[in-house]
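Archive maintenance. Older records in this collection stored only the sequence; we are now back-filling the structure field for every entry so that each record is complete. The fields below show one back-filled record exactly as it appears after the update. Entries are processed alphabetically, and D,D-heptose 1,7-bisphosphate phosphatase is next in the queue.

ARCHIVE ENTRY
Title: D,D-heptose 1,7-bisphosphate phosphatase
Organism field: Modestobacter italicus
Length field: 511
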Amino acid sequence: MFRAVERGNRAGMTDALRDCTVVVPTIGRPSLDVLLDALATSTGPRPAELVLVDDRPTGTPLSPERPGLPPVRVVRTGGGGPAAARNLGWRTARTGWIAFLDDDVVPDPDWYDRLAGDLAALPADVAGSQGRVRVPLPESRRPTDWERGTAGLATSSWITADLAYRRSALAAVGGFDERFPRAFREDSDLALRVMDTGSTLTRGERWITHPVRPVDRWVSARVQAGNADDVLMRRLHGPTWRERADAAVGRRPRHLAVTAAALGAVGLLAAGRPRAAALAALGWAAGTAEFAWARIAPGPRDRAEVTTMLATSALIPPLASWHFLRGAVQHRQVTTWRGLPDLVLFDRDGTLVHDVPYNGDPEQVRPVEGAREALDELRARGVRIGLVSNQSGVGRGLITRAQVDAVNARLAELLGPFDTVQVCPHTPEDGCDCRKPAPGMVKAACAELDVDPARCLVIGDIGADVGAAAAAGAASIIVPTPVTRPQEIAAAPHRAATLTAAVADVLAGTW
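Back-filled structure field:
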């Protein structure tokens, strides 16, 4: 009996990994090889796929292949940043779970086994499972300021150094908010939005090691750009976001006070008030000295660390204040992140191709200008695409279904493959539930690809396309042609002048 239960548990864990894709965004750091070696030698069942997202603008192709890895696929963003890289990774995956790893971590030898155990039989209301992080610090001396900061990852919540999400949970909120341009706060923002849907996140039992990577002496000054991201977090999640995200308060109020003292000293001196200027300068000096000592005292106190702390402690308050003010201006008005749709469905005649009534001849298929490029842009971002087409000529006996299929095959030759093709062969008099503006084809396409209609968009040229989308609970964009009636254009919730412009709106998140 015990062995049967053990075999059952093992089978469940294997099934969990088979329904999981590991996504690793990378900028090609040497640490990627260490990660891949660890994954290649880890014990346990392999996931369905390993997706490496190359986030370099340019560079030689990655060479990730090595024995022991699951099937590996490399996709490229062209340099979109961490949020965009992770989004491309999960959108191109087709499994129920997505496990994110950073390219500078080292999974434990039993990482696969423990990931499988963490995911197996999780309740449906659990949307994500976070791994556990250790940060090795030097044993022969006290850690530097940078090392202490990195060590904070060991107790941080919802960091994507090792975090697995249900794909459906990512799709429901549009994935990572790409308005966060750095590897900072984008993971906390995602976690809060997922939990806002009523789902929960949990901690698993798998472990990774996060080494302290080497940096130059000015890194603490550069990371102050994250103060702008903190403003965005407050705009999106309100004043209590830090408590919800388990994020430290930091020293921003003191940085603002120290910066104000410095500016006051300069202004008072220029105004001919040297005594007041001296008092303001004394306040700046005292605040800077206190900040520098707070960073020096717990550290090694060697010459290099002390001089770095002194220099950067003078720079950080004004930099933090500048980025905070920059963020306040940049993020004056923000909306909830919607991300890209999971599926874009296109009408065929008049939208993707020039309309030839009741066309049954593949040789007459002529795509509209920019159609191939527009569809390829969607594919490159991991968005699935499909076709929904009324073909009443079949029901009227003017063309055959085989001719319709031949025309659609020619369209795929010219524009690339479609993830789903839905055709209604009925006449308006048949009263079917698939002919647009009925929602049948849109719902069938979503069901085939396991897409929530709310994450689907229909692009067409007449009111029937818009109506089918609305009836199915999907969004729509109308691209008018000479046959589009003015009242259809006026009633459409979203309009675009051309197919290219419509896809540009989709990629910009304004769908």
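Update note: The chain has three domains: 2-214, 252-330, 343-507. Residues 343-507 form a domain with the Rossmann fold fold (CATH 3.40.50.1000).
Entry marked complete.
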